[in-house]
């Protein structure tokens, strides 16, 4: 439980609801552990013709108290004529208290639990927003979704449900034990019976061994669940490719194999989780049988034995649940370990304690000074890059795949920090700036622009949420998007669907360009912005991009010659180094690599 202590902070907003749930649970426990056996011992005999006469000779029936033994408290004596009515009325009263307390406990506990689940999920999701891109490169999207949706539930179960049981189940047990003492106080022969019940706690001994096995099986189950979610997410995001390459059978095979693996892991977990209750029940029955045998030898009356067995039956549930808590904690620990990989992951790209502000107006000069960076062991993605890009200059980054072009743009956006060297904007080291301040000065248009679920208006406004309708329309016009937006049946309020699926590729790209126009950032990064378009759409989008790049420092990451011609300067990358620098005509004459890439095209 110690590992879960930091997560109890999520109970603070609903602390009073949780305490009220515990109080209801305590009332339920006492009403069950003491109240029901009391009904069997003292009330039912009155209903069915038993019961004791008033020791004072008043002609009534004693329902509570009145012993001449060790306990001597005032008796509750009911007049003979009303005894049956009073005894019968006690039955619904006790059950009403139990039912009301049980409902209050369950409802308030679920309320607190859902709020805790909300808090943990929000914390994990917020952590995702701070982690660097390298973290997401190491973990699949489906696995991370599983951690948010499934593993957080295990933490909620421990923080709320286990805590609730730890607090209230002992009261049911204590209520039953109190009833034992209640009977034993006036009947010396009962002591031998109660002493034999000391064997009952021994049923807890198998719990620890089973709990260790359950944790391992729970970890396997969660890992398989994450893998299954990953395959499902990947498939749903790649519907066109699956159909185009006839991968349906392959995908079904992959999914079914993972389903079978998950099933095997779940069955192993269920085996250890569910074997505990029958085992505790069997061992408890053995202990109770021995106790009943001792009661028979001691001459305990049948009525007393029935009442005590009732109390034992009610005590069995808290014993079983307390035994199961260990397993629930172990299962929760497996989920917690996966969550802590997220919550405890280092923030590799962090803001400085006192970030500097970029001087206004931002000119957009970018400098790389002996920059080295790698994604992992092996060949570096950038190796000693020294480049100065003047403010307002349009520079194309070209080279073979994996040469370092996109990494160059990612370092400008500070998706990563260089391992050695410095990246500067207007003379300031990017590590001295807040990420929000830096990225608010940069607009990105990528090869596959991401549109979020919502309307076209909402997606363009992401560039500058406070923009007016006039500014919005002007940005769409400059991007060449206004005409097609106005022709749509819902116009600006058209829902774009998941990742913009209801729009064509060219329409998505122009919406993304309109978003960049609206941002009006001094630095623009075009990452293969036209490579996925046909020639007709490319021409429209390229015109919009040329318009967008005017007056801005622009990095054009491109493979197409038509896009490269936007630039007045070209950097040629190879193996993480800038091997050539200059205008198109100069590089055709001086750079064999550039000539091999673009020499066959008309200049």
Helix tally equals: 19
Spatial arrangement of strands, main beta sheet: 9-10-11-6-12-13
Q: How many strands, which pairing sense, and closed or not: the largest β-sheet?
A: 6 strands, mixed
Spell out the CATH superfamily of the largest domain: ABC transporter type 1, transmembrane domain
CATH class of the largest domain: Mainly Alpha
Structural class: alpha/beta
- Tell me what portion of residues adopts beta-strand conformation: 5-15%
Strand elements, count:
13
* CATH topological fold name of the largest domain: ABC transporter transmembrane region fold
* Backbone shape: elongated
Q: Which ranges are low-confidence, i.e. pLDDT below 50, for 5 or more consecutive residues? A: 53-79
**C-alpha Rg (nearest Å):** 37 Å
Terminal CA distance: 70 Å
């Amino acid at each position: 439980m110690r590992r879960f202590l930091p997560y109890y902070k999520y109970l603070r907003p609903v602390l009073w609801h949780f305490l009220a749930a515990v109080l209801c649970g305590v009332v339920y426990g006492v009403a069950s552990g003491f109240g029901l056996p009391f009904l069997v011992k003292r009330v039912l005999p009155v209903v069915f013709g038993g019961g004791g006469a008033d020791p004072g000779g008043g002609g009534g029936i004693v329902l509570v108290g009145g012993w001449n033994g060790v306990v001597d408290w005032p008796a509750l004596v009911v007049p003979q004529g009303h005894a049956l009515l009073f005894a019968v009325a006690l039955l619904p009263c006790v059950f009403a208290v139990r039912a009301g307390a049980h409902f209050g406990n369950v409802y308030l506990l679920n309320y607190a639990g859902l709020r805790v689940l909300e808090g943990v999920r929000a914390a994990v999701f917020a952590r995702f927003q701070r982690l660097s891109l390298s973290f997401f490169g190491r973990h699949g999207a489906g696995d991370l979704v599983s951690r948010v949706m499934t593993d957080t539930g295990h933490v909620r179960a421990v923080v709320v449900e286990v805590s609730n049981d730890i607090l209230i189940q002992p009261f049911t047990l204590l209520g039953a034990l109190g009833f034992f003492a209640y009977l034993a106080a006036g009947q010396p022969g009962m002591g031998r019976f109660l002493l034999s019940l000391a064997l009952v706690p021994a049923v807890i001994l198998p719990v620890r061994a089973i709990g260790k096995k359950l944790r391992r099986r729970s970890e396997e189950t969660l890992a398989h669940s994450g893998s299954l979610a990953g395959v499902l997410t990947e498939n749903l995001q790649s519907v066109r490719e699956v159909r185009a390459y006839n991968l349906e059978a392959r995908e079904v095979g992959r999914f079914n194999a993972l389903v079978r693996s998950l099933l095997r892991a779940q069955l192993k977990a269920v085996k250890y989780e569910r074997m505990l209750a029958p085992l505790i029940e069997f061992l408890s029955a053995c202990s109770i049988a021995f106790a009943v045998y001792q009661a028979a030898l001691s001459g305990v009356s049948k009525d007393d034995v029935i009442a005590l067995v009732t109390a034992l039956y009610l005590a069995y549930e808290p014993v079983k649940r307390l035994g199961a808590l260990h397993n629930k904690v172990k299962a929760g620990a497996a989920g917690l370990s996966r969550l802590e990989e997220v919550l405890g992951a280092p923030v590799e790209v962090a803001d400085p304690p006192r970030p500097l502000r970029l001087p206004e107006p931002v000119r957009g000069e970018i400098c790389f000074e002996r920059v080295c960076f790698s994604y992992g062991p092996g060949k570096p993605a950038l190796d000693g890059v020294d480049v100065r890009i003047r403010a307002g200059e349009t520079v194309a980054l070209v080279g073979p795949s994996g040469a370092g072009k996109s990494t160059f743009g990612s370092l400008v956006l500070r998706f990563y920090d260089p391992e050695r060297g410095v990246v500067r904007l207007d003379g300031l080291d990017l590590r001295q700036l807040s990420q929000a301040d830096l990225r608010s000065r940069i607009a990105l248009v990528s090869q596959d622009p991401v549109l979020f679920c919502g309307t076209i208006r909402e997606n363009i406004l992401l560039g500058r949420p406070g923009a007016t309708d006039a500014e919005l329309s002007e940005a769409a016009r400059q991007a060449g998007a206004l005409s097609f937006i106005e022709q749509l049946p819902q116009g600006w309020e058209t829902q774009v669907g998941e990742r913009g699926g209801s729009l064509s590729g060219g329409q998505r790209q122009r919406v993304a360009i309109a978003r960049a126009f609206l941002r009006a950032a001094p630095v623009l990064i075009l990452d293969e912005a036209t490579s996925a378009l046909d020639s007709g759409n490319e021409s429209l989008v390229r015109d919009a991009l040329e318009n967008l790049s005017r007056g801005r420092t622009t990095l054009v990451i491109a493979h197409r010659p038509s896009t490269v011609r936007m630039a007045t300067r070209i950097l040629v990358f190879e193996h993480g180094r800038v091997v050539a620098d200059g205008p198109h005509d100069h590089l055709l004459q001086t750079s064999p690599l550039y000539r091999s890439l673009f020499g066959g095209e008309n200049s």
